[in-house]
Write a structure and sequence with these properties.
single chain, 145 residues, alpha+beta, two-stranded antiparallel ribbon, 46% helix
Length: 145
């Protein structure tokens, strides 16, 4: 496996964690949204990851044949929470039902913040891996001088 191939693995991790962070921020922004264009309250979303073999964009240049290929990550999809919304008694609210209850998204801001920190740490780990590979490539070039 070439060092360039490792860069594509880390790049897939960066893209996946960025997508995860975007969905988490969307969840936080809509934590109090009681009506959406589809009707009803906003539904919490979550990102599903799947392993994916990463092709090396540099393998043709170096004529290297990779054994099995390195496995990166990709976004398999985004799923909506199927649980019932959280009902709060607010009879004066414009979206209250006949009994005075308003349906709110089932979003826990503390849990979302923990997930966002996890996504940020995953992103940082991939940046650190890319930096290490870059340093190894730089040292290899220096050795060849």
């Amino acid at each position: 496996m070439s060092l360039f191939h490792l860069l594509s693995v880390s790049a897939s991790g960066l893209a996946a964690q960025r997508a995860r962070a975007e969905v988490i921020v969307e969840n936080l922004a809509n934590a109090e949204t009681t009506r959406t264009p589809e009707g009803g309250p906003y539904r919490r979303r979550d990102v599903l990851f799947e392993p994916r073999v990463q092709p090396s964009p540099f393998s043709a240049v170096f004529q290297t044949e990779l054994e099995a290929g390195a496995t990166g990550v990709a976004v398999a999809g985004i799923v909506e929470d199927a649980r019932e919304p959280d009902f709060r008694y607010q009879p004066g609210h414009p979206h209250a039902d006949a009994n005075g209850y308003v349906a709110y998204p089932r979003i826990n801001p503390a849990e979302e913040m923990v997930d966002l920190i996890g996504a940020a740490r995953g992103y940082q780990a991939n940046v650190a891996a890319m930096t290490a590979v870059k340093d190894m490539l730089s040292k290899s070039i220096d050795l060849l001088k």
